[in-house]
Write a structure and sequence with these properties.
Elements (H helix, E strand, L loop, with lengths): L2 H28 L3 H27 L10 H17 L3 H24 L7 H24 L1
Helix pairs in contact: 1-2, 1-3, 1-4, 2-5, 3-4, 4-5
């Protein structure tokens, strides 16, 4: 199929990474707990790596990677700021918020992998499958710490 559909799918993944990176950077700022700081820094690193791989593929296809943070994530970060203030930066509350954001990413990756629309070639599917494994591992760590 055409590159337009492929670029759209890959850009949605880039957008999810942009959102999560900003969310984890915010989380790094609001927590004083060393275990959470370590986790959030690792997740920022993983998400940045995934975003970079996707952006390179979008560039190769002639597209422009997304750089805008979504409205839903702006709402999520505002909610995090307010809830952290009200909850006193509670460990569980912060992880609950992160889990909420991760649900969207895990679900979208799974949907992309399960949907054989023909938009992605084997190399792209392999990249997305590898990224899904990384994302799922991070998601599981968030849940286990919660």
């Amino acid at each position: 199929m055409g590159n337009t559909n492929t670029i759209t799918v890959l850009n949605k993944l880039v957008e999810l990474h942009n959102d999560r990176i900003e969310g984890y950077e915010t989380s790094l700022k609001v927590t004083d707990e060393p275990d959470l700081k370590t986790l959030f820094a690792q997740l920022v690193h993983i998400r940045t790596k995934c975003r970079h791989e996707l952006s390179l593929e979008i560039d190769r296809l002639g597209g422009i990677p997304k750089e805008v943070i979504s409205i839903s994530d702006r709402f999520l970060r505002t909610w995090m700021d307010v809830s952290d203030f009200l909850a006193g930066k509670d460990h569980k509350n912060l992880l609950d918020t992160c889990e909420f954001g991760e649900d969207e990413a895990v679900c979208y990756y799974k949907a992309v992998l399960d949907n054989d629309s023909g938009y992605l070639n084997l190399e792209q599917k392999s990249m997305i499958h590898s990224q899904y494994a990384l994302i799922k591992t991070g998601y599981d760590k968030v849940i286990s710490l919660r």
